[in-house]
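Dear Dr. K.,

Following up on our conversation at the group meeting, I've run the structure prediction for Membrane receptor RagA from Spirosoma radiotolerans. I'm pasting the input sequence below exactly as I used it, so you can double-check it against your construct before we proceed with anything downstream. Let me know if the numbering doesn't match what you have in your notebook.
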Amino acid sequence: MKFTLLILLLFISLTSVPAQTGSSGLRGTVKNKQGEALPFAAVIVKGTPKGTITNAEGRYEIGLAPGKYDIVFQYLGFQSNQKSVEIGTDFATLDATLEEQALRLAEVQTKAGNEDPAYTIMRRAIAKSRFHQLQVQRFKARVYTKSSFTVIDLPNLAEMAFRKQLKEAEKEANFKVGVPLLNETVAEVSFTQPNTFRQRIIANRNSQGDFLSPNQFYNASFYNPTIAGAVSPLSPKAFAYYKFEYKGTFREPGPSGTPVEISKIQVIPRQYGEGVFRGTIYIIENTWAIHSLQLETVNNIGISISVRHICSPIQGVWMPTNQRYEGKGTYLGVKASGYYIRNLTFSEFVVNPAFVEDIEVADEKKGAPAQTLSKSDIKGKNFDELVKKQKEFSTKNLRQMVKEYEKQEKQARKNRKEDVTVVRDDSLEVDSLARKRSNVYWDSLRSVPLTSAEIKSYRKADSLGLIREIKVLTKADSLKRDSLALADKQKKKAANKFSIGQLLSGHTWGLTKRSALIYTSPLARVEYNTVEGYTLEGALNFRYRAKVDSVNRFRQIQLGEWNVGGTGRYQFGRKQVVGYGLASYQHKNTRVALSGGRYLYQYNPDNPISPFLNSLTTLLFEQNFAKLYQKDFLNLTVSASPFSERVALTGSLEYARRSELTNYREDLKPWINWRERTFTPNRPENAEVATTAFPTHNALLLNLTASARLGATQYTIRNGRRIARRDNESPLLTVNYRKGMDQVDYDFLQASISHSFETGIRSRLNYKLSAGSFLNDRQVYFPDFKHFEGNQFFFQQGDVVSTYRLLPYYQYSTAKRFAEAHVLAEFRKFFVTQLTVVRLLGLKENLFVHYLYTPASKNYTEVGYGLDGLIPQVLPFFRVEVISQWQDAKYQGLGFRIGTTLKFGR
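The predicted structure tokens came back this morning:
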């Protein structure tokens, strides 16, 4: 059997050659004058939507029906070369040699004191950028993409620790350091104004077997103000981030045969780093459209990304038909590189009739047009009517006209009952046969031929797959396969049977397709605190999902979900069992929950210190920060999100018997005995009252909370799922009212407003302002006080915007009134990030202020500075902060904190 397998593999390796892409067509190689291959050069079949790009070896291949064609070869920095060819019933060969582009300089550049001509070119191009986006009414295209990702080097520690796993990955998944992982995709893509993209994957092939999703550059346009989070050179704010230099002009044939003038503009960032590009952009004179570009940037983890676009005229509109992205760098010690290429062939292309291409743009800084329009001349007028009256507009007037056009289009969409808050509607569908296409089928679709290394990688992947398939050739292997399938079925069946091991690890038993029993092992949550000692907590829940409403295959709305269960907790120190039961029902965005039992809670319901972190600080550092009280309770909570989830409402009614607790022993000892520390009592210290002690009492509590966005939130839709855009959220207003009854008697009202918005590229301002008061404080116990998000440990956790860094957890809790303010500014460039090398490492700076007023707080203030990326490339998820404390404008001290950036600012 093994000998037969080897013979078959040897036969495949000798006979596997690329198939031809059809019965007739064109192939060849594109080189420079020195004979060097030009990788990813554009090959355009003039007068047709067809085209391709060369591979990394400079070779191209394209299927064409018999006939005569004009073929245009393009490469950035080289003169275009047009050749005629006649295709017969077979493949013809047509090689091309490109010469470097000869540029001529404009006379104005040589005159002393004149502005660089790049600026008038860019002002016109920027003014017309949105115009070019709106030119395309809709299109359909076949898109071929290919990506290659190569791990160049791994840290020595990783290679030593995972040597066995790496060998298995090479054997099973075709992964090896230095060998590229390939992914090819052919998709049918459609676009409709203003924001709808539809993509259907009809073929996908990967040398590793995984599907590679498009990255953030996919379907992005440099006519947008930003692309992948970086400022485009055509952004209205571009002059604040870039300088431009004119490098010369060249001429080449246009879409109708008439020569077009193309200017080369050097893009120079004022401060290079994350969020900006550098490189070259080519602008077509008079139309001010992008001809091509070659730019590079760096992302937030220090990976360098280069971008190349070559545009081709499609019905007079210059579209980026050939795109190439490359990335390289080191992250967490892993050195890697990769590229992503994309080639579009249009089958349908409709131009917006309102946007004709013969509009002239005058730069008013160089010379005003013959007629300048006022706002009243533009307001309410149709775009095409204005264009019929005059052909030349100032850059300002053109921007105003486009803005008015979009305003009218938005109103028309509202009149058609369309959701104008949706700024992007994407969907992705994968054909059921996409992963099963044959090599012959692939060769008929592939628009970029494979390189020798890529063919070798695919052969190995196919060989690995063949090994698995050949094993079923003999009867014995067939029986073995059947037995394995039966064993797998039995294994799945056994997973729903009870076993002793499941008691230790936890398990989910699928009872039916809609119901499940979920068991959480007590060993999964082992904790320690000075009130309970060591604890074990386990849970058992039954979940039943009722019928779902399928919007599409990617999104399902839950019409009903039931959860019934309980949680038990054993306290080794108190030698008691506590716990609670929970029953809930959720219908779409409304949830009703009933819970009750006996459990221990932190005085601050927001849990300023997590139980896990408190366990560490207590056992290792002799600091028992968590302060707990006991509550016997019955709680009913209802929550809903009406108005398309723009408003959130929560109401609860709870009856509770609350008791103060003490440490379970007086002579508690930590794992490490610190000489200058000792465990503190469980009773918190507070500056407003002499003691926080309270008697065991009953309380009936009504708690109502409402929150809403102050403005329309914009959304994107992905496969039917609405996702709020965090970069464009409106301020969030939250109002909370609490009423205490029975043996407590108080009314508490508070309101807060929070917002996060961009102040520049990679820069944000985050704030949260809150204020409240006890309107009635006839009987208030410490659990009912207003508590604040303090922190006394060197590791900072919680929301980085609204959490104090040095404030003791309960020192300024109040039963009177309060006001607090939190402001955090994130900077792409501030102090140390003024240095380019620091920005390239991915470091980021923050300034923050936290303020608290209560009758006893003496205007408590924290002013701090933070640096994200504690150790670049090694510990990029952590930040270090230095904080100063102030009270009544008097300096109190300095502190340091280490935190995580994983949930930074949001």
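Two things stood out to me. Residues 358-420 form one domain. The two ends are 59 Å apart (CA to CA).

Best regards,
J.T.
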